[in-house]
Amino acid sequence: MKALTDCFEANRAWATRMRAADPDFFDRQSDQQHPDLLWIGCSDSRLPPNLIIGKQPGELFVHRNVGNVVVHTDMNCLSVLQFGIEVLHVPDIVVCGHYGCGGVRAALQSRPMGLIDNWLRHIRDVRAMHHTELDAIDDDEMRLDRLCELNVVAQVANVCHTTIVQDAWRAGRELTVHGWVYSVSDGLLRDLAISVECAEQVPSIYRMF
Ligand code: CO
Fold first, then answer.
1. 44 flagged as catalytic
2. Residue 32: is its pLDDT beyond 90?
């Protein structure tokens, strides 16, 4: 209970600080959110998205799960995508993975972890697709970090394959999907430079128009 009490104390102190710095801050928050970025990231506690890219409340729309996975039947993720694109009109979506990701590490091992193995199967599929490249890497940590990157590449593609993103492009909307990786060891983001901004960049087999 002590930890939860701390949460409320910290919250009151934060709200007081925010009001002191900007008396109208919460009045503006009560209106409507106007985020300019949809963040799809790992649930890992070391990646608080607002903190690491300097976004205030109201500036970032967020979906997180273990391993920053985008699955075309995941109603949770798809609902965030639809709301972010069709209602909030975010112009940019970021899939952000991180080096040393525990979910990705589990997908490289054979140790059973229970129910989560079903979720991590999506990352194991990415491993299977790139097994030749990954098997050629001798160093375990370098192999892990490369799969962290390849997983981001795969999930960016999955975002682009959704009907939601393709509907937006077909309607002529400006929407770019980016792939980033965060390093917990130095706090820095790396842009994988795989941004997709139109349907023509999507392989024809996944293109719905
Ligand atoms: Co992770």
1. yes
2. no
